[in-house]
Write a structure and sequence with these properties.
Layout (H helix, E strand, L loop, with lengths): L5 H7 L4 E4 L2 E4 L5 H4 L1 H9 L2 H18 L1 E4 L2 H9 L8 E5 L4 H15 L5 E5 H6 L4 H15 L3 E11 L2 H6 L1 H17 L4 E5 L11 H22 L7 E5 L10 H15 L7 E4 L22 H15 L4 E3 L12 H4 L4 E4 L1 H10 L2 H14 L10 H8 L3 H4 L1 H5 L3 H21 L6 H6 L15 H6 L8
Parallel strand pairs: 3-6, 4-5, 4-11, 5-6, 6-7, 7-8, 8-9, 9-10, 10-11
Antiparallel strand pairs: 1-2
Helix pairs in contact: 3-4, 3-8, 4-8, 6-8, 6-20, 10-11, 11-12, 12-13, 15-20
């Protein structure tokens, strides 16, 4: 399943795809679902040239059949103008664990319900502990779309591209350089949607809202200009800002105005934000009680309604974004479209489903790893259940290949549980039958990539003509 050479890689798609130098031709699209697995696996676990070529190959196959990374900016601005009704809430799904299996479940649910308005995302912090850099993440998502026969725009998002308050305080130039480099890497990999999060620098000790938000909106505007300088010609990367750090005090319309007025002044004529993230009562991952269960969380839906309405009416954005929503009770989700919430972010709930459905011995091994390698996260006064719940995301990268290598029955069980949850979310968030409106409000441009340069010498040596059988 793991290709060691480009010839082995191209043989995996023989009969479906031909490769001639830099040109990829799909000769039998119906065969792609049965041919793509090994290519995606090589893109994740291969090394050097063959790994990079696998990522290029998935991208080019997607371009050929209509599976393409895209920006949701135009759709969101259409919502802000009132051209598209604000009656659905776009799920932004953090795919941390078992990306290929999880993304396949998402696309199956999307195909069943006609969903196009959905985001696949990964945060700056998650890239480390899940061992997924942007190029690999994009390949797993696109590969899953090809596996499940999805066609249309695929919105991939950098979530919480966050300014670390501590690192910024000690060396602001180095922290901003790191963020600029991450945006360059992500946009090159097809992340045409990025949430800029400088809300960590909001300082509530100042007497006025403008002073409290000033560093936040100034840096957000600065990072906006960097993103615009990196985006492909003709594509406006969808950018979001944030006015209140999740888990802290609830946001207000007055704070929204202070942030946006300052931001718009700083950003000038540069194309600005399509959305704004706010705080209305949730926390990332939920609040874990001593017995390992989650505490009830109440969202201030009226505040969320007011913030979304103001974002649209006063600033032309699509609306407000709710973070930390995946562990909310099921009864809460249909309220988000009711109050005009543009987007909600969902992460930990999917991780929980995977852990709940992994084989018992696999979970035991992961927990043993956490006890051995992350016991420093077990804070005084916390139960073992609380420690394991909060720390178990740390095992995802360490066990990535082992979990990918589980047998078909294990993947089927996990995939079914995930698909059921995605179908529930898509239905309650009212994004069914949004594929047409999403495609109609998304600019698609030719976006071919060059085959990895080191492969040029291989082209003459490889006879790929026999791979078209």
């Amino acid at each position: 399943m793991l290709a060691k050479t480009n010839k082995e890689l191209f043989s995996m798609v023989a009969g479906a795809v031909t490769v001639d130098g830099n040109k990829v031709t799909v000769v039998n699209e119906s065969l792609l679902p049965e041919k793509i697995d090994g290519v995606v696996y090589t893109a994740a676990f291969g090394e050097g040239l063959v790994r990079d070529t696998a990522r290029w190959l998935v991208w080019q196959i997607g371009q050929a059949v209509g599976v393409y990374p895209a920006s949701i900016h135009e759709l969101y601005i259409a919502v802000g103008r009132g051209d598209v009704p604000a009656n659905f809430t776009v799920p932004a799904m953090n795919v941390r664990a078992m990306n290929f299996t999880t993304s396949r479940a998402i696309f199956r649910a999307a195909n069943k319900l006609g969903v196009g308005a959905m985001l696949f995302e990964i945060a700056r912090s998650e890239m480390g502990y899940t061992s997924q850099r942007p190029a690999e993440y994009t390949t797993s998502v696109l590969g899953a779309a090809l596996k499940e026969g999805f066609r249309g725009p695929v919105y991939i998002q950098g979530d919480h591209f966050q300014v670390s308050a501590g690192r910024y305080a000690s060396d602001p130039e180095a922290e901003l350089t790191a963020l600029n480099d991450l945006m360059a890497e992500a946009i090159d990999a097809g992340f045409y949607n990025i949430d800029i999060d400088s809300s960590t620098l909001v300082d509530l000790s100042f007497p006025t809202l403008d002073e409290q938000q000033k560093v936040n909106y100034t840096l957000c505007a600065q990072l906006t200009k960097v993103a615009r300088s990196l985006e492909p010609k003709g594509i406006h990367v969808s950018l979001g800002g944030e006015i209140g750090e999740v888990g802290h005090k609830n946001s207000t319309v007055e704070e929204l105005h202070a942030f946006m007025n300052g931001y718009n002044k700083e950003v000038g004529d540069t194309v600005g934000l399509s959305k704004i993230s706010v705080q209305t009562g949730t926390s990332h991952g939920g609040v874990v009680l001593a017995d390992g269960t989650l505490a009830d969380v109440k969202v201030d839906f009226e505040t969320l309604r007011d913030l979304s309405q103001s974002a649209r009416d006063d600033f032309g954005m699509g609306g407000a974004v709710q973070h930390g929503a995946s562990t909310l009770p099921a009864s809460a989700f249909d309220k988000f479209p009711e109050v005009g919430t543009l987007e909600i972010h969902l992460a930990t709930g999917f991780q929980n489903i995977i852990y709940d459905n992994l084989p018992a011995d696999v979970v035991k091994a992961a927990y043993a790893y956490l006890h051995e390698n992350h016991k420093n996260e077990w804070k005084e006064g916390k139960s073992e259940e609380q420690f394991l719940y909060s720390a178990r995301k740390r095992a995802i990268g360490a066990f990535k290949q082992e979990w990918w290598d589980l047998d078909e029955a294990a993947h089927a069980k996990i995939g079914k549980a995930l698909q059921d949850q995605f179908e529930f979310l898509f239905e309650t968030l009212a994004v069914g039958n949004t594929l047409e409106v999403a495609a109609a409000n998304t600019t698609r441009l030719p976006n071919d990539k060059q085959r990895p340069a080191e492969a040029a010498a291989d082209v003459a040596e490889e006879d790929v003509s026999d791979l078209a059988d």
